[in-house]
Description:
The chain is α/β, with parallel strands linked by helices. It has two domains: 2-205 and 383-400, Rossmann fold, CATH 3.40.50.2000; 208-381, Rossmann fold (3-Layer(aba) Sandwich), CATH 3.40.50. It has helices at 16-27, 47-55, 64-77, 79-95, 100-119, 132-144, 156-159, 166-172, 181-190, 208-211, 236-248, 264-273, 288-297, 312-319, 349-361, 364-381, 384-400; strands at residues 2-9, 31-38, 56-58, 124-128, 148-152, 175-178, 199-201, 223-227, 254-258, 280-284, 300-303, 324-327, 341-344. A seven-stranded parallel beta sheet has the order 3-2-1-4-5-6-7, sandwiched between helices. Strands 10-9-8-11-12-13 form a six-stranded parallel beta sheet, with helices on both faces. Helix 4 runs antiparallel to helix 5 (100-119). The relative contact order is 0.12.
Amino acid sequence: MRIAYFTNQYPAPSHTFIRREILALEARGHEIARYAVRPFRGELKDPDDLLEGEKTRHLLKVRALLALASVLRSFSANPASAVRAFASAFRFARASRGQYFRHLAYFYEGMILADWCRKDRIEHLHVHFGTNPTTVAVLAHQIGGLRFSFTVHGPEEFDRPEKLALGEKICASSFVVAVSSYGRSQLLRWADLKDWRKVQVVRCGIDERYLKDDVEAHGMEPRLLCIARLSEQKGHILLLQAAAKLRAEGLHFKLVLVGDGPLRAEIERETGRLGLEDSVILTGTLAQEAVRSEILRARALVLPSFAEGLPVVLMESLALKRPVISTYIAGIPELVQPDNGWLVPAGDLDALANAMRQALSASDFELFRKGEAGRRRTLERHDINRSAALLESLMAQAGTA
């Protein structure tokens, strides 16, 4: 099957799950075209991302004359469909409370995407994230008739489903993927009853380097690790406050923050205000092998998120036998259980500090037990090869519908 993958930015350091999915489908014999709206705005460090970048076409990097040619070809192929898609773009704009110029740009992108898919003889278009890339995909579908599906991760789609016209997107799609049962429940809230059958759970998968490696049970250093974009929803400031609470009790440890984002300056200021300069390490974005090495050095991963889907980094940590401290929100409790980590209420400083204290003071045997349980659960539920097979089946069924 000739499949195209499309998203907002690709490749990106936080989108390794998309790359794994693409590679797993290619291993099953499919031809995959990579499309994205724009390149990643930061620096790519992972060799695999750099390789993917060479294979990806970006809508906003197309030269003006070539883009105009794509638009004209899409319009001339079916003018009536293009006009209907143009009307749809205005409906999406009304739902988003008047973002007409933005949705005019999405229509323009949809014309180019439809042309690319036609020229590349794409049989199925799959989109990651139910935000603007799926809006563009709906318009391309209406322009060119190509069937499409999309994966919703959350939490953004769940925060503003009406502005994103989530129900209309589900209706237009061949099927919709949720990455957890919780995610499916949120999609069902906005789907017409007749479309419930379209909403399927396909869990994000981890690849061979996590599935096959034999690793030690735990890190020897008093070291906790947080891997997340430095943004409000991840709970970094609360994490620093919990770390300060433990330091005030006389505990000595390192807290490593891997990632970058808009909250970096505020996190640095809070680290200084709390007197944690000797305890907190900010690494910035790391390549995948460096991320894996950081997980192996840690006693536990901590991710005190306020809003989530189901973070892939939790799967990676548990697969490497490192227990997890996280919050019981969204899809997280479907993976993190009492036997493989610690779940705390989101926003609860004392509960978070207590879980971190337990992870730092846990015996070798307890860490071993939790690590083994975490690896078992992750391998049972998050094998990328099984996930790719399920996606392949859904795409094949869409082609015969």
